[in-house]
UniProtKB/TrEMBL annotation:
Keywords: Membrane, Transmembrane, Transmembrane helix. The chain crosses the membrane at residues 25-49, 69-89, 115-148, 184-204, 211-229, 249-268. It comes from gut metagenome. This is Membrane protein.
Amino acid sequence: MKPLFSPIRFAQFLRWEVLGNPRNYLYWFCAIFLISLLALQMLSIPLYGDHYQTGMPYYLGADKIGAQVRLYFMGLLYLLFLTLAPSYIKHATLTDKAKRMEQLMLPVSALERYVAQWLICTVGCTLIFITAFILADLVNLFLLSLYFPLMEGFQPVPVGYLFGIGTDEWGIIRTNHFYNSGGVLFSSFLLLQSIYFFTSYFWSKRSFIKTSLILVAFVIAFVATFVYTPCLKDLLLQDNSDTLLLETIGWSGAHYIAALYFLALGYGRLREAESIPRW
């Protein structure tokens, strides 16, 4: 009886998955690059154009503000991309009958297949996104230097902040409140990504649209419950600064547990789909 998880088999399958879909990854890279470049141009030109056209003296602080704006945009685009990735990658596999049959015939377990696809949707897509965005930002800075030749000192996006690397010169206050908020946002992202990853196995078609509609309906119902329930509304609006740390830790812990739950559901769905012929 073969083991449930073999590092050698897992590495071979991961290599097969990565090398077997170069065109899809190239499409993702080009799409992220073009979208990022277009959006960065739309964000940057008005900011620097005001200084250039009015003859106002240019100072480095203006570019720090521009870099911060581009960083925030990068974060939002990153979250959108990693929630879209599972649905697209699974859709590309499920709609290709030859690819699907070839994948099922490989001597790997469901767990190895599941972990490999999760790594591709998280770590792999992160590398694709960061590489494409950094390249787009560099091209954007080059174009800005052509548009505004008298302005110097353009700075790239401080990508290190996405990984907790940076200094206070960028104006991001490094306090416990900042890190607590960042922890909740990160855990919320993991939960959201795990939900989309699970539904990509649950629905073979239009999983992103279906999941998004369900989440939007849930958020509307959740907000309406707080708004139209007086006791819950008062609880939401009360000053809780003294217990903020405990609350953020609690929310983050709940998000991590829920993310593991949805990942486990996705693995169960994969095993069910492989044991019962559904195509």
